[in-house]
Amino acid sequence: MDYYNIVISEELARNLVLRDNASELFNRIESLKQKHISIDFKGVQSMSRSFAHEYITRKNNSSKCINEINMPIELEKTFDVVSNEPRKKKRFPQLENARILTL
After folding, report:
1. Host domain of residue 17
2. Which residues in 36-53 are b (16+ Cβ under 10 Å) and which e?
3. What is the pLDDT of residues 50-102, one digit of tens each?
4. Which of 53, 43, 6 has its CA nearest to residue 25?
5. How many domains does the chain have?
6. β-strand 46-47 against 65-69: which pairing, if any?
7. Distances (CA, A) of 12 to 2, 21, 74, 89, 94
8. What is the distance between the alpha carbons of residues 17 and 3, in angstroms, rounded to a whole number?
9. What stretches of the chain show up as alpha helix (H) in DSSP?
10. CA distances from 94 to 14, 17, 90, 101 (A)
């Protein structure tokens, strides 16, 4: 099975920070003809939680089979933390049913 290989440090940056960068990466991935994509994390030095969250969200909704390789342990830990975060609860759920009162 042939994989289309993307070296993410060359494609984006060595420091993966912006949510928009993850989104751009997945827009490119979705436009590829190949079904199987290999994302090589060789050379990546750091990753923000917002990048990791967008990456995971887009990967879970992707039509492609995506495989990560050469991922540093620090990045694996970031992905694990972001994947296991509970969804944010609404601060004031009772406000959804509240009536609007004009004064």
Report:
1. 4-87
2. ebbbbbeebeebbebbbb
3. 999 999 999 999 999 999 999 999 999 999 998 887 766 566 666 667 677 77
4. 6
5. 1
6. unpaired
7. 23, 7, 18, 33, 42
8. 26
9. 8-11, 19-31, 49-60, 73-83
10. 44, 35, 9, 15
Structural domain includes residue 68: yes
- Give dist(CA 9, CA 51) in Å, integer: 14
The pTM is what?
0.79
With a CB cutoff of 8 Å and minimum separation 6, the contacts of 32 are 4, 64
68 CB neighbour count, 10 Å cutoff: 16
Task: Compute the distance between CA of residue 32 and CA of residue 68 in angstroms, rounded to an integer.
Answer: 17
- Token digits of residue 2: 């042939």
Q: Is residue 78 part of a domain?
A: yes
User: For the chain, what is the largest distance between any 2 Cα atoms, rounded to a whole number of angstroms?
Assistant: 67
